[in-house]
Design brief:
single chain; 252 residues; alpha/beta; Rossmann fold; seven-stranded parallel beta sheet; globular
């Protein structure tokens, strides 16, 4: 029996990379996208293949919705060649970036950049790829703990994530007749290169955030990747339309 296939945007580093490795460890083949870090993406592919699963890396700028039609054609042909299938089982809308800017200083260009990646890109890429998701498949959209608790400076970013949480609920209802589950995962403070790696590299901030977290530390990429892999398993098939926070109990 052939493996299930997961498509992960922004899978060359950070949470996307961790999700790719955990999903592969659970027995899935992986398609990951990257914006410019081809070498890093190729290394993730080799790591997945070393564990006995198939993997493929494709270039995609999720901020450029005009490229989605061409990406869909490329995906179709590459999947046919590498997997002898043109449908996949899991779509993880993970690619993203952020700005730490006080509300009064947010520039329109920054706002538009966040919107293009986190809202418009997710909306229209999902729309383009929905026909290739198998009936009974799974869509996971990445939000943030910042959509629940408040940290000054992340107003614009968190606004986008709030929109994604609403989008998730609507998508769960509209794709429910196909048996497609749609959920949001919301990481808390995690040691990645997000925001310049501030949580990972600033020891004072890291320690302060740990005191605000029920489990006494900030998250690691494997905490998030492992949670994503758990939600992708068949025994999670009755979970849809939900926001699942992966934060270790931050600010509860």
């Amino acid at each position: 029996m052939s493996s299930k296939i997961a498509l992960i945007t922004g899978g060359s580093r950070g949470l996307g990379k961790s999700a790719a490795l955990h999903l592969a460890a659970s027995g899935m083949d992986i398609i990951l996208t990257y914006k410019s870090a081809k070498d890093e993406a190729d290394k993730v592919v080799k790591d997945i293949e070393a564990h006995g699963q198939k993997a493929l890396a494709l270039q995609l700028d999720v901020a450029d919705s005009s490229s989605f039609a061409a990406f869909k054609q490329t995906l179709h042909s590459e999947m046919d060649q590498h997997f002898q299938s043109t449908q996949f089982h899991v779509l993880l809308n993970n690619a993203g970036m952020g700005y730490h800017t006080p509300f009064t200083e947010v520039k329109e260009a920054e706002f538009d950049a966040l919107m293009n990646v986190h809202v418009k890109g997710v909306f229209f890429l999902t729309q383009a790829l929905e026909p290739q998701i198998v009936d009974g498949g799974l869509i996971l959209n990445v939000s943030s703990g910042l959509a629940r608790f408040t940290v000054p400076g992340y107003c614009a970013y968190a606004t986008m994530k709030g929109a994604i949480e609403v989008f998730t609920r609507y998508l769960a209802k509209e794709l429910g007749p196909r048996g497609i589950r749609v959920n949001t995962i919301a990481p808390g403070a995690t040691e990645t290169d997000f925001g310049g790696g501030v949580v990972r590299d600033n020891k004072e901030l890291n320690a302060m955030l740990a005191t605000q977290t029920a489990l006494g530390r900030v998250g690691l990429p494997d905490d998030i990747g492992g949670g994503i892999a758990a939600l992708a398993q068949d025994n999670a098939a009755w979970i849809t339309g939900q926001r699942i926070e992966l934060s270790g109990g931050q600010s509860i």
